[in-house]
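User: Fold both of these, please.

Assistant: Here is the first one.
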Amino acid sequence: MTQDALATGVQAAAHRRGLRSGTDKARIRKWERGVEPNGESQLYLAEALGLPADIIRPQDWPHWLPLTTDGVIPLGPNSSAPALREALRTAMERRTFLTVSGAALSALAADWAVSPATALAQARDGKPIGEDFVAFLETTTQQLASLATEQRQHTAKLLEAHLSTVTELLEHGRYTPALGLRLHTLAASLSQTVAWHSFDQGRHTHASQSWIAGLHNAHAAGDHDMGAGLLGDLAYQAAWRHDQATAASILHHALTRAHNPAARCLLQLRLARTLAARGDRSERRAVLRALAAAEKHLNDAGADRPAWCAWVSEADLAVDSGQALLDLGDTGRAHQLITEGERLLPAARDKTRGVFLTYRAASYLDLKEPEPAAAAATRSLLLARRIGAPRCVQLVDDLLPRFQPYQDAQGVPELLQLAAA
């Protein structure tokens, strides 16, 4: 849009209200160069740009304006801070009308797969940042992320405040290259944690933008395994939203630069789940190849694992393999693996246990055994409500129609009553 066209749009927005605006090309130029438009002009600007009025916060000018048309900041030598800003703005829950398309995510993954590492930004002229303060941020972030699952539901605002602080430091601080590397790494880790919080709460746009911001910062830090993991998370979200084509595309790109065996195990498990969920039996061989690769990588994985995938275990291999086989129609073997995986899961991973229990309930339903299915679903629902995990609650809700034919079975009426409460 030219400056003249935008000025015309602003004038038209005022005219529709029976008012007159003196906005012209010169006024637009002033706004572009730092002069702040008043609240009324910002309203007209939003309308001229086709944006809803409820995203406007005059005191937040110009940060409420979208940075891109498709919601994805392109990778580049100075893209890490803008990507973080985009995620932080989305966190204000005023921009959920902007969704990130599967095509844009696939294009970002393809760009990441071939994009060379770039030199970190040089120290700026801002206030100097001390190593002790960065260490404090790293330590407290780790403490917040390592809390018991039930307590993590209370940490979202603290983590977002940490991420906002790190973003300010990257944008306006003065730091050595070594500290810059640590700040980018911390930003990537924080973004990933914040994204999972948002995803579990059903805030998908914020989750996408946070994972994207993490990807930019992992790329800036030259951490290919972390970048692959963040793409794996975006693929998991796409699969959750039934966009298996986007999920598969992202995972194939992620696998090109992942090196750590634990990281590759997790990505191969997600690829197997994605391919199996397509429901195309012709892809059975590809699913089994991915599962075999995941098992080999897990056997090869030692103690030296990235923190974001240190938890990958035999339990995950068993349950995800079982779920993939369930989608392929191998119900008996799938049920055995899912049950075994849930048994192997450490007590500390309650959220994952809630997800696994719903998988077990689904496998019992496939075997036409409603009583143990109801018991597993009830355990999952109670656990999800206790730890504050709406995503797990949704999994149980999605299963409820399958219980309707078994209303006389033991435990089923109680489950339906609990879900309705």
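And the second sequence with its predicted structure:
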Amino acid sequence: MDDLDHRNLGVKLKLWHLQEDAPGMVFWHPRGYAVYRVLEDYVRRKMRRAGYAEVRTPQLLPQEFWGRSGHWDKFGEHMFRVDDGDLAMALKPMSCPCHVQIFNKGLRSWRELPIRYAEFGACHRNEPSGSLHGIMRTRAFEQDDAHVFCREQDVEGEVARFIALLDEVYCDLGFPDYEVALATRPAVRAGDDATWDLSEAKLGDAARQCGLAPQINPGEGAFYGPKLEFALRDRLGRSWQCGTVQLDGVLPQRLEASYVAPDGSRARPLMIHHAIFGSLSRMIAILLEHHGGVLPFWLSPDQVAVAPISKDQAAYSADVLAAFEDAGIRAVAYDGADTLSRRIVAAHEMAVPVMAIVGGREMRDGRVSLRERDGSQADVPLAEAVSRLRARARPGAFVAEALSPANAGS
């Protein structure tokens, strides 16, 4: 592994660890979980503004339920089974059938549609040990999962809503360019040809109406429907398939989802599945390698390291730290016994983007010296330092700073 492989970076930056007796299971350390929560909370806000209601569904459900949805036939060998007496249970590999259960509670009217659910769904898949790869491919992971229950005439608008959301998120993360493919019906699939004809046509039309020209990936669709696949391209030219949007007429039928149509009859909704990241841990790995281990300020686990020159500034240094924290800036104290130069090196090794250095003059004048990773410094009043860093902490702000030559690598 090279120094910029996410598996090395995770250990070096004290973000997470993996261990042999728990293959494919990630132990998130405080710094790594800070990045995880920033991404999760960021997408949560985006989804809420886009009209999605967040839900939470169980991890363990009867095997019979997964049989009805079709997932046991398709993924059974990769599902973790748990026996509860005479009842066979299984850990969920994905959340979509669970969202149908929420939709099915109560009588739904066409006036309520579209109904949009979102979940950071914790999923488990018993991947072969040889396919595991750091935190990019694991056995336990969390998806930014969302599902829309809608009518046929809603499909284009809902797909457009998702693509606009995905485009905004990818730009904030430093991926303004991405490739799109339409994955069509696989050889082994559920549903009849008429359902697939409709789903493929609607999804392709929706993409083109959004100005996209997807290439065709024959036979690569999900077993229940076609999908649009969005692939990011990192600064090394590598392509990473992340986001997906899928149109599904199968699961609503298998799990008996229905709503009351305008004429009073019962009708089946269509179901749109989508995710922007796919897996939060995989997205973090991609971001780390894309940014050479130095994440943009808004994503950094520790955004500013507060370092007093001597113990004489300890009290003021604590005030500086508190001022940053009160402003929502992730600040950490670098106030150990080492020399200031050693503490600067230590912060640099942890990829902390900014040092806030406090000496006697800064304490006397209520100021702080902000030192960037490239060595540039600015001596400013504390209130201005807080304002500057708070502006940089907005999602997407200064997204290119981590890709500058001065910040690349360690």
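The longest helix spans residues 30-49.
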